[in-house]
Amino acid sequence: MPKHFLTILDIPKDEAKQVLLRAKEMKDDNVRTDLLAGKTLLMIFDKASTRTRVSFEVGVRHLGGDPVFIASKDSQLGRSEPLKDAARVLSRYADGLIVRTFGQENLETLVEYGDIPVVNALTDEYHPCQIMADMLTMYERTPKLEDIKVAWVGDGNNMAHSFINGAVTFGYQLSLACPNGYEPDEEILAKARGLGAVISLSDDPSEAVSGADYVHTDVWASMGQEEEQKKREKAFAGYEVNGALMAKAAADAKFMHCLPAHRGEEVSEAVFESPASIVWDQAENRLHMQKAILEWIYT
Ligand code: CP
Ligand code: NVA
Questions:
Q1: Start and end of every Aspartate/ornithine carbamoyltransferase carbamoyl-P binding domain (predicted)?
Q2: Cβ(245)–Cβ(206) under 8 Å?
Q3: Cα 209 to Cα 248: distance, rounded to the nearest angstrom
């Protein structure tokens, strides 16, 4: 049976720590291997990407494999070829699928009908590669992840859901502040709490960031929600991560953002460009962490 990475919870807790340590080693030692020699990984993207696309293409090459990128709109998928058909065809050509799509159920269809590993490169529900990379970025500064407080200020979106899952696996305390009507999915939250995660949810950014070691945010309108931008700007008023908000976090708190960022909306220019902002390390760590995730899948 192939291993898949659809959410953080697909990696057993004890193995997740090993993946994290391996990602750090991959980074420190600038690791190149031939693990994927002779293997082709197809990258099927329904949505735009800079970091995820490039870090996977580079990472697959660092492991000796060949990435092949397909923008769905340029393929028959963009003309309604059923995913369950594509899954069976592509399984005969390639050794893995790295997929950015809308509904999580699309990935589940690829798993059900294909017989090669499937990696979630972002869905409407989750962004697990990003949050695993964020774990590395926080771990580099505070190795005891179970002792830190992570604040999420903004939309209860794919990023928030993966932070919720990450709290199960890595044991940090998570405080979310989301406007009314933009909270994370109740089932995802309830499941994580049931698995022991310590997570608070309010509509008060000050409460969420109080004493936090890391303050995370994301765009107010995700890909696919562009026409809601104006409505969301109203709903998210007061949710900008600015100097006044960061002052309520822990003394040496860091600001993080998966990028791309909208300065003047979810984050002020001053915070984004401040010494507290570690967004470039965060973006770099996508490469190292994804190499470690691929190694977990293919070893
Ligand atoms: N953070 C992230 O996933 O960026 P891209 O959309 O550029 O891949
Ligand atoms: N929540 C954002 C993340 C982009 C990396 C989106 O889904 O568009």
A1: 3-140
A2: yes
A3: 6
State the Cα–Cα distance between residues 210 and 173, nearest whole angstrom.
12
**β pairing state of 96-100 and 149-153:** unpaired
CA 241 – CA 115 distance, rounded (Å): 43
**ipTM metric:** 0.99
168-202 burial code (b ≥16 CB/10 A, e <16): bbbbbbbbbbbbeebbbeeebbeebeeeebebebe
Look at residue 180 and give its three-state secondary structure.
Answer: coil
- Of the candidates 8, 35, 262, 249, the one whose C-alpha atom is nearest the C-alpha of residue 133 is 8
Q: Out of 22, 53, 100, 216, which one is annotated catalytic? A: 100
Q: What is the DSSP string of 238-250?
A: T--B-HHHHTTS-
| pLDDT of the residue at 62 | 98
Q: What is the pLDDT of residues 21-73, one digit of tens each?
A: 999 999 999 999 999 999 999 999 999 999 999 999 999 999 999 999 999 99
Residues 121-141: pLDDT tens digits?
999 999 999 999 999 999 999
Q: Write out residues with Cβ below 6 Å of ligand 2.
A: 122, 127, 157-159, 218-219, 222-223, 258
Cβ-based neighbours of 265, under 8 Å, separated by 6 or more: 219, 220, 233, 236, 240
Q: What is the pLDDT of residue 33?
A: 98
| 237/5 Cα distance (integer angstroms) | 35
22, 161, 213, 258: which is the annotated catalytic residue? Answer: 258
Q: What percent of the chain shows pLDDT beyond 70?
A: 100
| CA count, 13 A, side-chain hemisphere, 236 | 25
Ligand 1 centroid – CA 194 distance (Å): 30
CB-ligand 1 contact for 223 (6 Å cutoff): no
The stretches of 219-278 forming alpha helices (DSSP H) are 229-235, 243-246, 269-272
The single residue listed with the structure tokens 């993946």 is: 19
